[in-house]
Write a structure and sequence with these properties.
Order of helices and strands: EHHEH
Strand order of the largest sheet: 1-2
Radius of gyration: 15 Å
Oligomer: single chain
Number of strands: 2
């Protein structure tokens, strides 16, 4: 239908290197071993596939590492962000979208 889009890989707490897990998050954002088995090997594959999309000329934004240097609480469970985390993710995606000609009107 010609609708512009920007696929984005959101961060998740148990992706190794995505964010230092705070003490509070370690106590309250628990996940099952099955979930970890999907996240730990799965997120590197998602990043690789995203890079392949870019090589093919398809827009893709990898936001999985935007919190890699953040300390403190950003998650209220293993994948859902608190409002400050959500705002930062939205800011990251918005900044990426602004660089794409097909997502930004010519008048900007």
């Amino acid at each position: 239908r010609g609708t512009p889009s920007l696929p984005a890989l959101q961060p998740t707490l148990y992706d190794v290197g995505a964010k230092p897990i705070s003490e509070h998050e370690a106590r309250t954002c628990l996940i099952s071993d099955e979930w970890k088995e999907g996240v730990v090997p799965g997120y590197p594959l998602l990043r690789e596939n995203g890079a392949e999309l870019r090589r093919r000329g398809i827009d893709f934004h990898d936001a999985s590492r935007i919190f890699s240097d953040w300390t403190g609480d950003l998650y209220y469970d293993s994948c859902h962000l608190t409002p400050p985390g959500s705002l930062e993710l939205a800011r990251s995606i918005g900044e990426a979208a602004r660089t794409l000609d097909d997502l930004v009107p010519a008048s900007r």
